[in-house]
Amino acid sequence: MAEAVNSAAVEVGEKEGLKEITELNIRIGELQQIDLEIFEFALSHLRAPMLRNAKINLKGEEAELKCRACGHRWSFSPKDLGQDVSESIHFIPEVAHTYLKCSKCGSPDFEIVRGRGVWIESVKGVR
Ligand SMILES: [Zn+2]
Prior knowledge:
This protein is of the alpha+beta class and 127 residues long. The chain contains 4 helices and 6 strands. Strands 2-1-6 form a 3-stranded mixed sheet, covered by helices on one side. Strands 4-3-5 form a 3-stranded antiparallel sheet, with no helix packed on it. α2 links the parallel β1 and β2. The radius of gyration is 17 Å and the shape is elongated. The protein binds zinc ion. Zinc ion binds next to loops.
C-alpha cells in the first residue's frame, strides 16, 4: 500500500512537471483497514528520490453512510463508538453493519459512500 502511494505520488509529480515534491497530502478513509503508524513508517522508508525531502501529511476522511431503505445520509467516525468497537470496524468495515443503524428509519441496510480507500489529495513541489 505504501509503495503504491509512493509511486502514485511520483506519477502526480511528473505529470505536474515537478523536479521535487516538497509536500504530500494523503487522505485515508477512516474505515480503511490501515494502521496509520505502520503506514507512515513504511511510507517514510520507501521514499522515491523525488520525495526525499517531502513533508508527508496523513489526514483521515470521515466516513459517510447511506441508508438503502430511505436514502438518508449521515457521517460517521468509528471513534464515536468507543475504542473496542472502533478497532474492530477499523479492521473490518463489514462489521459496521453489526453496530450501526440508520438514524432515521432504523434500517441496518446501508452502504458506505465515503471513508474507504487511500488517495493523494494534493502535492506541492519545485518545478
Ligand atoms: Zn433509513
